[in-house]
Each structure stands twice: as structure tokens, then as C-alpha cells.
Amino acid sequence: MATKPPVARPLSPHVWHVRWPITMTVSIVHRATGDGMATVGTGAFVWWLAALAGGKDSYATFLHVFTQFWGGAIGYVVGIGLTLSFFQHMATGIRHFLLDTGAGYELKSNRIGAWLTVIGSVTLTAAFWLYLLGGK
Amino acid sequence: MGNGTNLGRVRGLGSAKHGAHHWWHQRLTAAANLVLMLWFMIAIAQLPAYDYATVRNWVSSAWVAIPLILLVASVFYHFRLGLQVLIEDYIHDELQVVLMIVLNFFTVGTAAVAIFSILRIAFTGTPA
Which residues cross the membrane (chain B) (predicted)? Predict the structure, then answer.
């Protein structure tokens, strides 16, 4: 092994050199949204609860950071980001449950299922925020 | 590499009989999360306002505090399993062990703060 001189062997093409279908996108997005919610989402959620339990002043600080800074930019970015992450992760999660049964692996239905998660998550996020901001 | 005894293979068990543990708990909490998080999102959307008194009064109800605690238990366990896979896939050697310990501290620590906060609100109500 060590006595053989190194030979330049062909490398398999890296991920950027192959086609990038929607199925690959929703797969990595499932992980990204899950881990994003696990870190950013947990931080915001625990802060919200602790501030609420702490009393009027601590809740006012929480509300100030999320609704007043830069015209509420933090609240919108984190809030809409987490909502979109949640609905996307939920949709791909449901898709994984269906795939677990062995169904939906044919190329066409697999691709359609992947697209449906994206369409569903964007639609649900838009509906959620439209209801929150204007529907009431 | 063995695959266990013939009987074990028929039963679909690994040699330690815990081969599917992570996979199964991930699915189990995923199903629980689906119900609990949909309840949470709909309830949050339907709150009349988001000021201190309104939100605190909402959490202080047993019908909210209990599902909220269940949500913390299920969601936090679920994200612990997910972050574990992230660490296993991308981080190696000693750092992987360190991060796995940090992950457990993070999960248990944040869950403790969340559950304590909910209980404190539920047990003390809304101060005037």
C-alpha cells in the first residue's frame, strides 16, 4: 500500500457538476429548515416564554426587540423565516411519511411531491401572515 | 460484521435490538409535532392581540399550558435527534463527542427554561 507510488485516479464529479433536481433541493432544505428552527427557533421560542414568565418589563423588552427595532425588521425576518421553515419542514416531513410506506418513488410522482411541498409551504406561510396582519 | 442471529434477522432486530431506536423516535415525535405544532400555529394566529396581558392570560389556562409542555417535550426531543444527525454527518473526531455533549446540555437546558416558564405562568396566573 504505502510502497506503491500515488496514481492520479479519476475523481467522481462533485455535486455541482451534476443536474440539481427539485428532489435534492427539498431534501437539503428539510435539513436546513429543521436545524434552523432547532437553533434560531428554539432561541426565539424560549426567550418569548421566559420573557412572558418574567413579567411586564421583560416581555416589553422582547416585544421591543422583535417589533420596534428597524421598524420591526427582526420580527418580520425571524417570524416569516420560521413560519416558512415550519411549513416547509412539515410538508417535507409528511412527504417522508408517505415515502416511508414505499410509495411515490417513481420519477414523476417523486418530483411532483417535492414541488407540492414548496407550493404548499409558500401558500401556507402567505395565508398565515395575511391572516395575522390583515385578516383580523 | 455480523447481522445477528437468524431469529434476530427474521424479527428485524439488530444485535443490540435497538437499531431502529433513533429512526422510530424521530418518526414518533414527528407525528406528535404535526398535531401539537398545528394547534400552536392556529392558536397563535387566532389570539386577539399579542400584548403582555392577553398572551399571559392565554398561557395560564390549563388547556394551553399542558399542550405547550407536551409540545416542548416532543419538539425538543425531535430537534435533538435531528441536530445529532447533523453533527454525525459533518463533524468528526473529538469535536463530534464534544458537540454531542453540548447538544444534550443545550436541549435539556432550553427545555427546562421553557417548561419552568410555562409552569410559572400557569401557577401564578396574570398579575394585575
Answer: 30-50, 62-79, 99-123
